[in-house]
Amino acid sequence: MLQVASITLMQQTKSIRDIQINNKKILIRVDFNVPMDKDFNISDDTRIREAIPTINYCIDNNPHSIVLVSHLGRPKGKSQEFSLKHILKRLERLLDKNVAFADSIKSAQTLQDTLPKGGVILLENIRFYEGEEQNSPELSQSLASLCDVYINDAFGTSHRAHSSTYGIASFAKEKVAGLLLKKEIDSFAKALANPLKPVLLIVGGSKVSSKLELLINILDVVDKIIIGGAMSNTFLKALGYDMQASLTEDALLADATKILALAKTKGVKIYLPVDVVSTDDIKNHTHIKITPAQDIPSGHMAVDIGPASTKLFAQVVHSSQTIIWNGPLGVYEISQFSRGTFNIAHSIADTYAFSLIGGGDTADAIEKAGERDNMSFISTGGGASLELLEGKILPAFEVLDKKADFIQP
Length: 409
Ligand code: ADP
Ligand code: 3PG
Ligand code: MG
Hints:
Layout: H1 2-11, E1 25-29, H2 46-60, E2 65-69, H3 85-95, E3 99-102, H4 105-114, E4 119-123, H5 131-134, H6 137-144, E5 149-152, E6 174-177, H7 179-192, E7 199-203, H8 212-217, E8 224-227, H9 229-238, H10 253-265, E9 269-271, E10 275-279, E11 288-292, E12 301-305, H11 307-318, E13 322-326, H12 339-350, E14 354-357, H13 360-368, E15 377-378, H14 383-389, H15 395-398
Parallel strand pairs: 1-2, 1-5, 2-4, 3-4, 5-6, 7-8, 7-13, 8-9, 13-14, 14-15
Antiparallel strand pairs: 10-11, 10-12
Bound molecules: adenosine-5'-diphosphate, 3-phosphoglyceric acid and magnesium ion (MG).
3-phosphoglyceric acid is lined by residues 31, 33, 74, 156-157, 160, 382-383.
């Protein structure tokens, strides 16, 4: 099975616990790509908080210095809107320590030489350097020159083969995983490589196309799949239902039929909504109706699962021991269409199953449902978690040192 082999391989990555930090120059690639409002107030600092244990671990082990490297957003050139200065105060507060800001690799080098021992330096947005996304060898080498030990703790960016996540490793003496990277991969292993059965995948969101590979590859791992959100519209349409004005991907109807047939041959049960909440307009609605999925009113679009589906899905949730969830079951951003997603979050919270959450919007929906603390593990990676569920080996893991007893699976 693809997932098991890839995850087992990635779990054999060396971590900071396997090496010496004392007196060494440390560079940690973190993912401080956090959401901010127009005034640069951080609306969710989870990714910064999740990087703190690794930084503190290094501080506690007497390093020469620590340089933190991250990207923020997708800047074109050096736009100050994307400066990492916006997160400096929050970082200092969470670390309870002063952090020096370096606006270039050169100034990071100067700070390394002048700060008292153990100083922490935050480098400006690494995507301000053109070579970063091109994985340029020059940039990779220049970053590596800042360190004796390269630590990758940027799980959210571990699916990118960029200079600071990938190329740097070929120039660094020691290259290991941070505690977050390790926690993420161990949690995915718990759900994918040796899960308690039955395993349930709940999948939703807006597009089948973005999760087609996941759906096909995960059939070898799971026992049951609940499909909701706009994704289920395409599946219901493939079954011959009139989905009216619902969001569907007509180019994928044949793929949806193929997945349903493949699931049957592999003995995986698929659950689709039996009723839906539909509306004439998502933002300016004048009508909202609950109907069987076959009877969507003319001109309406399905925007949430209905109450009968919520009950049915809750039963499926309660009879599972491992639950993987990626993608909201409706337009959860609008309160009238959030009930299905929120109720499933509450159902998962009520179980004793191991629950693994991937996907930025899914994590946001769970937070809004007030169930964040009741999930077993919420991944800090959207795209990265999707690639893990697809069975891929993430580039960032690929280039890190392996444990001494490494076995090729
Ligand atoms: P994640 O970030 O968790 O992977 P996605 O980005 O795939 O999730 O999907 C989330 C989006 O899907 C949300 O913005 C939500 O409004 C949208 N969505 C869910 N159900 C529907 C639906 N029935 N019609 C239109 N959009 C939907
Ligand atoms: C993310 O938010 O998914 C990561 O930080 C990666 O960002 P990217 O999609 O811009 O590479
Ligand atoms: Mg999303």
